[in-house]
Amino acid sequence: MAKIVIDGGYKLNGVVSISGSKNAALPCIAATLLTSQPCILENVPEISDVEVMFGIIQSIGGKVERLAKNKYKIQTQKISSSSLPRDLVRKLRASILFLGPLLAKKGQVKMAHPGGCILGKRPIGTHFEALEALGVKFQQNRLFYTGRVKRLKGAKMFLDEVSVTATENALMAASLASGKTIIKPAACEPSVINLAQMLKKMGAKIKNEGTHTIEVEGVTTLSGCQHKINADEIETGTWAIAAAITKGQITIKNAPLENLDAILYKLGQIGVRYKIENSNLLILPSNNLKASRIQIDTWPRLPTDLQPQLTVLVTQAGGDSLIHDWLYEKRLLYTQELVKMGAQIILFDPHRALVHGPTQLSGREIKSPDLRAGMAYILAGLCAQGQTIVGKVENIERGYEEIEEKLQKLGAKIKRV
Ligand code: EPU
Predict the structure, then answer these.
(1) Which pLDDT does position 389 carry in this prediction?
(2) Where are the beta strands (DSSP E) in 205-325?
């Protein structure tokens, strides 16, 4: 298992370019199954979650061709099986995104409970409810879920959770259902909008994406398309924080400026100095970071996927910061390792913690429990005294492209072993 070794205390300086967003890319890859024609996806991040999604497509008869770096042609002329390989499905929760397309194209699907990190193993009831509303009958035994439907039928559905991927599944299925579907309350995250834009290029009739009420008028076939995955707002926030905690100055290129409102608002409140110049985001040296309340919520508020990184930021800010993240059951447990690095954090319960800053962190050896907490440990290592070794880097590589190359280019003393 790979580890990342960081010698902390060096200012980051230079230019970094933002990759395509993992969470925008994964549903678009699944959506290619909705047509037998080729789809060309650009700005696809070359990360392990994307590889697993490609592996699943190939296992059911699809072809994936790398046309250039970050550019792929995907075509599934004939779906050879509606049963998804258990070993790949267990690798990531986003494999659930194949439910909608397979039911729409084949009328059936068989898959194991999707896996991923501890956060990814949570229930998937909202996905089932959304697809059941369109006429799917699900059964489950100890090993598999199976779903069947003759033809999906549009319906008005109410989602118990404003779930991002359940909204995406509903959107993909409804695009090929007969009649009209109303998805409510739909998630509004940029990845949902990005998927809707791709589906529209394929011929889907979708209205009001980006709001809590999405309307879809089903069509009988969808065609191929060329589509660019949007840049990753979470990666942007992560590098901005990396610069701020090392008091560095960096230029972030290809940042999705339209999707950064909540993140830039919070960074500004904490005292991270930034400006936007020629469509680049410049992070200026920040010397006076101040505590702030980190209230996580669904879009357009602060995203949970940036919460661990923001927590590291406020360990360097003067005063008491309350972190409140209600989304995942065990989301804040990673803070225990930050405490061992010297952070002053009181964990009230798995959803609320108080961080007292600023504190000088010191390096240690830690294992990354999941993607975002793992990245938070790398950030902590960048501003810690001494050496930090972050293990289980595989968890972090699921969502960040070229982590050590990008950080090395910014002057971080970081290597992979
Ligand atoms: N939740 C609620 N009520 C809601 C909305 C969400 O309780 O109204 C809870 C869910 O029960 C769950 C959590 O919030 O525990 C996340 O829910 P959601 O179903 O929206 O998550 P997801 O669709 O499975 C996507 C991203 C995650 C990201 C979440 C939340 C993809 C492939 N995954 O997951 O990304 O954390 O939305 O924004 O898009 C990551 O990139 O690190 C990651 C885990």
Answers:
(1) 98
(2) 205-207, 214-217, 225-228, 249-253, 274-277, 280-283, 294-295, 319-324
Q: Are 79 and 61 spatial neighbours (Cβ–Cβ below 8 Å)?
A: yes
* Tokens representing residue 412 in the block: 């971080």
Ligand 1 atom with the smallest distance to the CA of 96 is: 24
Instruction: Looking at the structure, tell me whether residues 11 and 121 fall in a common domain.
Output: no
Query: What mean pLDDT, rounded, does the chain reach?
Result: 96
Q: Which residues of 243-274 are buried (b: 16+ CB within 10 A; e: fewer)?
A: bbbbebbbbbebbbbebbebbbebbeebbbbb
φ, ψ of residue 243 in degrees (nearest 5): -65, -45
Ligand 1 centroid distance, CA of 164 (Å): 6
Which protein residue's CA is at the shortest distance from atom 9 of ligand 1? Answer: 327
Active-site positions?
117
Asked if 80 and 210 sit in the same domain, the reply is: yes
Instruction: Find all residues with CB under 8 Å of 126, minimum gap 6, and list them.
Output: 159, 160, 161, 163, 166
Based on the domain organization, do 41 and 151 belong to the same domain?
yes
Q: What's the pLDDT band for 60 if we cut at 50, 70, 90?
A: very high
Ligand 1 centroid to Cα of residue 162, in Å, is 9
pLDDT at 117: 58
The reported pLDDT for the residue numbered 9 is 96
Same structural domain, 67 and 214: yes
Range of the domain at 132: 22-228
CATH of the domain at 192: 3.65.10.10
Per-residue pLDDT tens over the stretch 342-401:
999 999 999 999 999 999 999 999 999 999 999 999 999 999 999 999 999 999 999 999
pLDDT at 143: 85
Q: Which of 203, 228, 253 is the last residue of a domain?
A: 228
